[in-house]
């Protein structure tokens, strides 16, 4: 509730469908209280000190006639066009220079007085003098037409602004898409370069590994060839002699064992008391005959010993070589 309504009893100000608040020294319009009196379609606020109308005043859509003459109004609410039922509007003797663009929406307005306002030239020309009823009606018609032109210009300007903003937005979006496309292409190129780098590194590793394997294989083949060459040199020398030497060793060992056995038996029979035994008599005779023969065949025996020594030396050398 406004401070003016505290000293006003609006019920005392209403008569049928008219709410008379003129000459009440009001500086504000009691919009909230007026909203409850929807049957009061005529509102007289003349001869007060009202400098502006609150935006909520535009919600009083039941108003048909409004008198705001002889106040201090410098402007009207932007949504004044919401008062679509308004037919009569008196704005005489205020401080108005312009009207809101929505004024063109007061399609039922039939009477308008804008005298004694510092209107801008084009609006003052459209308003005219308003000296009588006819001129006030013409004023309403001409001002509505003038405001419709302004409304159309404002709509076109708004459409141009919206189109310009839309074009700007489209350009921004296009630039954004181009930037995203470039970034995407750059990321794709980086991934491809990284993949190519990894592929080259992998190929280099594989080539190095293959080279090491090839080198290792060549080294093994070289060692194998050397081993085969070394083995090939030994085989022709040892292979034909090995069977013969093995056989000779066996025969020599048998003869040596036989001689050692005979020598042992002869020594036992000749040097002990068993030489008189029956089994030693032939051995003793054979030993005596052998010694006698050996004395006679000294030269031949020397040659035999030399041959046996040579054979024994060859045998020992061949045994040492086979061990190595």
From TrEMBL:
PROSITE patterns linked: LRR
Pfam families on file: LRR_1, LRR_8
Protein name (record): Leucine-rich repeat-containing protein 59
UniProt keyword Transit peptide, yes or no: no
Gene designation: lrrc59
Topology versus the membrane: Single-pass type II membrane protein
Keyword Endoplasmic reticulum: yes
InterPro entries for the chain: Leu-rich_rpt, Leu-rich_rpt_typical-subtyp, LRR-SigEffector_domain, LRR_dom_sf
Any one GO CC term of the record: nuclear envelope
Organism: Takifugu rubripes (Japanese pufferfish)
Basic and acidic residues: bias regions: 170-202, 213-222
Subcellular location as annotated: Endoplasmic reticulum membrane; Microsome membrane; Nucleus envelope
Annotated SUPFAM superfamilies: L domain-like (SSF52058)
PANTHER family: LEUCINE-RICH REPEAT-CONTAINING (PTHR45752), LEUCINE-RICH REPEAT-CONTAINING PROTEIN 59 (PTHR45752:SF4)
Keywords: Coiled coil, Endoplasmic reticulum, Leucine-rich repeat, Membrane, Microsome, Nucleus, Repeat, Signal-anchor, Transmembrane, Transmembrane helix
């Amino acid at each position: 509730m406004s401070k003016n309504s505290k000293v006003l009893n609006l019920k005392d100000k209403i008569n049928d469908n008219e709410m008379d608040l003129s000459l009440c020294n009001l500086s504000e319009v009691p919009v909230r209280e007026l909203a409850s009196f929807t049957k009061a379609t005529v509102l007289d606020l003349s001869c007060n000190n009202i400098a502006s109308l609150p935006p909520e005043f535009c919600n009083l859509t039941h108003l048909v006639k409004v008198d705001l003459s002889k106040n201090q109004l410098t402007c009207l609410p932007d949504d004044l066009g919401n008062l679509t039922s308004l037919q009569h509007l008196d704005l005489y003797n205020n401080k108005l220079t312009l009207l809101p663009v929505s004024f063109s929406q007061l399609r039922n307005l039939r009477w308008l007085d804008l005298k004694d306002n510092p209107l801008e030239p084009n609006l003052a020309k459209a308003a005219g003098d308003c000296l009588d009823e006819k001129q006030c009606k013409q004023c309403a018609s001409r001002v509505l037409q003038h405001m419709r032109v302004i409304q159309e210009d404002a709509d076109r300007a708004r459409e141009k602004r919206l189109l310009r903003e839309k074009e700007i937005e489209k350009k921004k979006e296009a630039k954004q898409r181009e930037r995203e496309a470039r970034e995407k292409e750059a990321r794709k190129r980086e991934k491809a370069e990284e993949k190519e780098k990894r592929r080259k590194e992998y190929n280099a590793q594989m080539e190095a590994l293959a080279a090491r394997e090839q080198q290792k294989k060549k080294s093994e083949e070289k060692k194998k060839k050397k081993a085969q060459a070394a083995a090939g040199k030994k085989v022709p020398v040892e292979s034909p002699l090995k069977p013969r030497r093995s056989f000779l060793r066996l025969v020599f060992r048998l003869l040596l064992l036989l001689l050692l056995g005979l020598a042992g038996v002869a020594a036992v029979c000749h040097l002990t008391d068993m030489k008189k035994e029956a089994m030693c008599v032939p051995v003793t005779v054979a030993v005596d005959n052998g010694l006698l023969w050996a004395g006679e065949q000294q030269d031949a025996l020397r040659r035999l010993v030399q041959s046996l020594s040579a054979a024994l030396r060859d045998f020992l050398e061949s045994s040492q070589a086979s061990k190595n």
